[in-house]
Amino acid sequence: MAQKEFRKFSSYKIQLYLGILDVACIFFNSILSGYWSKSGEIFCTHQKSSYIIGCIATALWAGTCATCMILGFNRIIEILFPKLSVKLFRGCRTYFWLAIPTVYMIYFAFFTNPLLFSSTSYAMFFDPYVNIDRFQIPVGTPKHENISHTINNILVIAVILIAYLCLCLIMLLKNHIDHDTNDMSYIQKQTFIQVTIICFFKMSAAAIYVYMQFFYTPDWLVITGQITWQTSHGVVGLIYLFLNTNMRDAVYTKIFKCWKPTTQTKPTFIRATNSKY
Description:
The protein is mainly alpha-helical. It has a single domain (4-129, 145-255), classed as Rhodopsin 7-helix transmembrane proteins (Rhopdopsin 7-helix transmembrane proteins, Up-down Bundle). The chain has helices spanning 4-7, 10-39, 47-80, 82-89, 93-97, 99-111, 147-178, 181-214, 219-243, 245-255, and strands at 116-118, 123-125. A two-stranded antiparallel ribbon has the order 1-2. Keywords: Membrane, Transmembrane, Transmembrane helix. The chain crosses the membrane at residues 16-36, 51-73, 94-117, 151-172, 192-214, 220-243. InterPro entries: 7TM_GPCR_serpentine_rcpt_Srt.
């Protein structure tokens, strides 16, 4: 996505930024969390490092959520109002939009309570003493919570669901108006597959993590929430590789010099429109 042929499209610029955040977050919520699960670490054993890592992981999650919402907005504007899209996202203007999730991450990193990993539940909680029966919280102690995180997750569920349902509806309407059944059916097929995968894991992680911060949650659901969080950052790369013809050809061409591109066949959903900005 960092190649010039992709960076001329605003949607790929946003996806590149999102990819950087995804890869960074995977280190904290997958690799490091896996190591701590095996070694049995809790907040009390590594308070400073656990707190700092929690701040970074929480900020990266918030940043990916904000970037996904901007990407959904970008796609809808691109399809419905191409001229307006050029005015909003042309050239370096896309980078100004990316300043929003950057500031959003700074806010979550420095001004909100972080998620803290606990090997007792194999997931991250705002309460550092979750499932530690021997620890008694003194009466009157403020609860460990993050209202901003709760609002963020609820907003993500609503915005992503509405945005991508709108995209699917737009594709259906375009099919009906243009009467281009064969080509549009292919695009629709790719659209629904990619939308379903991306939205399912992102919204599932957001919903489960909000629920388990406030209510009793069985271990299997907690672990499911952690896995969906991990998958929401890792599955997007696989979607690009297997369902995005342009991206797959670019990767294969880099690895196999004799690879013959197939991008001239049919476009996929992730591919940007023909307007070059």
